[in-house]
Amino acid sequence: MDRDAENLARHLDWNLLRMFVVLVDSRSITLAASKLGLQQPSVSSALKRLEETLGRQLIERGPGKFRVTDAGQQLYREAVDINGSILRLSTLMRDITETVQGHVKIAMASHVLCEFFDDVLGDFHIQHPKATVEIIVGPSHHVIEQVVSRQASFGICLVYHKHPKLHYQHMFREHFGLYCGPKHPLFGKPNLTTADLAGNNWVSFTTDQLSDVLRPVTLLRAKAAPQDAIVGSSANLEEVRRMILSGLGIGPLPVHVAKRDVEMGYLHRLPPYEDPPEIDVYVTTNPATKLNRAEQLLLDDLTKRIDSIPLEDRIFGG
């Protein structure tokens, strides 16, 4: 290590890095101060001290202006990693005991309905009853952010662009269909074609965009009714389902998830029925994350279960 690096490591206040991460995420000194429980001048002063320590301008700021410089972007990426490592220290220390009793935090997309994953969770609890599990649900890009920042043990989500720092294991493939609820004019009508979908309102997921993970679903909707309005959206499958059932419009759902509602007469499947859009779901891990024993055991159990099931048996709703 050269002398400059040693001096930086000795004099850098690690709290400034945490402040910087919050500031960049907030895009506002006012919002960052509120999240940190500080006054605005304190945040401004801390940013100035960090810039002076590093000898670089990190953020260009002024009336109506907030731009992270190239140096600031580089520092942010490193600071997220450092902050994640520090947050995990207490977890690792708590785990030094004979009994497996660590905490596992799983970040997950909302429409992950997978029986073998449920079995893995149940078996893990039987084997390690002292361990605790937390599941947070959000859009797939939030899942990736949680894994990259090491705030989650691992993630289960859809993937559009693979992050270079993460590892991906294919978990299962699901197919999406279009549905309407009992209050919709098309509900229960036989012999419908894709042309019958035009002129209707739609509901969908917030990630239903050409540049996001549900691109195949977006293309299906655009082909069926390119001019029709989306009147409701959510990142949560249950809320998309709620809006479809309530009659707000036609919407996409995973076929294997909607199957029971169709059988019970709550939802009606709409065309097209052939070649439904395919969406792949992945287990996402960060090789830089130091897992506690509970995290490692659950991840190993899930990985082994996936490897033991042929791909054709991990394709749902086709």
Automatic annotation (TrEMBL):
SUPFAM superfamilies: Periplasmic binding protein-like II (SSF53850), Winged helix' DNA-binding domain (SSF46785). Keywords: DNA-binding, Transcription, Transcription regulation. CDD domains: PBP2_LTTR_substrate. It comes from the Bacteria. PROSITE patterns: HTH_LYSR. It holds the Pfam family LysR_substrate. Residues 12-69 form the HTH lysR-type domain. Gene3D superfamilies: Periplasmic binding protein-like II, Winged helix-like DNA-binding domain superfamily/Winged helix DNA-binding domain. InterPro entries: HTH-type_LysR_regulators, LysR_HTH_N, LysR_subst-bd, WH-like_DNA-bd_sf, WH_DNA-bd_sf. PANTHER family: HTH-TYPE TRANSCRIPTIONAL REGULATOR YBHD, NITROGEN ASSIMILATION TRANSCRIPTIONAL ACTIVATOR-RELATED. Belongs to the LysR transcriptional regulatory family. This is LysR family transcriptional regulator. The lineage of its organism: Bacteria, Pseudomonadati, Pseudomonadota, Alphaproteobacteria, Hyphomicrobiales.
